[in-house]
């Protein structure tokens, strides 16, 4: 699909909000493996189709749905504690935890244009911190927000609206990069423009609601020329720390 300038009519882009898993790091296949192990541990016969439907939602939301759907009597707190400990232990040592190919030059370009960046992920805050530190991507983001820190997780728009507020940007001036159906729906519900990143590692995701879909960050080189980027005004010297 060829991107046309008119597709991006509207306020200039003043802030960019990234999902984390499957967008900044190719962590979804690792999560799938850990989650399948947890499902088996608690006796939940989750199908592949059902599993893919949980991409982009918080762990609490996923496990609430799994326990209810499969009529399991385990306390939610016990399940979450078991699963989160496994995730943190495995992710802390996983050798394949690397930035998505070609995402770093895109982040560098945005930073050079003084565009503020946020991570808005359904993962717990502890996991966001771990991944940002392990990959070295944390230095790019002035805001890191977890779905556990807002009232309703994706596909509700809360996390993106809060990220925009923390960045000091109007929702209509924000661009979101997402790899899941739930994330794209949340971005559009927040009144934001959205690029869907079609990552095979994220399962079969319907990104049709996105304004544009890419399969590689190499495609952003052409897209960025279509975007109207408005750099932030420099902070006056007397206001700088």
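^ structure tokens above, recovered residues below v
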């Amino acid at each position: 699909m060829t991107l046309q300038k008119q597709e991006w009519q509207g306020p200039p882009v003043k802030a960019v909000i990234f999902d984390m898993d499957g967008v900044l790091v190719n962590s979804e296949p690792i999560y799938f493996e850990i989650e399948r192990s947890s499902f088996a541990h608690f006796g939940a016969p989750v199908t592949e189709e059902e599993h893919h439907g949980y991409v982009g939602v918080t762990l609490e939301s996923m496990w609430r749905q799994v326990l209810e759907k499969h009529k399991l009597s385990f306390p939610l707190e016990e399940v979450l504690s078991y699963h989160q400990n496994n995730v943190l232990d495995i992710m802390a040592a996983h050798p394949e935890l690397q930035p998505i190919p070609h995402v770093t030059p895109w982040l560098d370009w945005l930073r050079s244009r003084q565009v503020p960046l946020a991570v808005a992920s359904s993962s717990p805050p502890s996991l966001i911190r771990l991944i940002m530190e392990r990959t070295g991507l944390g230095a790019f983001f002035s805001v890191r927000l977890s779905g556990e820190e807002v009232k309703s997780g994706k596909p509700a728009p809360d996390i993106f609206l809060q990220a925009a507020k923390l960045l000091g940007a109007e929702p209509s001036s924000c661009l979101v990069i997402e790899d899941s159906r739930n994330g794209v729906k949340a971005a559009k519900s927040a009144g934001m423009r959205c690029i869907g990143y079609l990552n095979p590692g994220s399962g079969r995701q319907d990104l049709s609601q996105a304004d544009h879909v890419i399969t590689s960050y190499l495609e952003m080189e052409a897209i960025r020329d279509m975007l109207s980027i408005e750099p932030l005004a420099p902070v006056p010297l007397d206001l700088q720390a």
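The longest helix spans residues 76-93.
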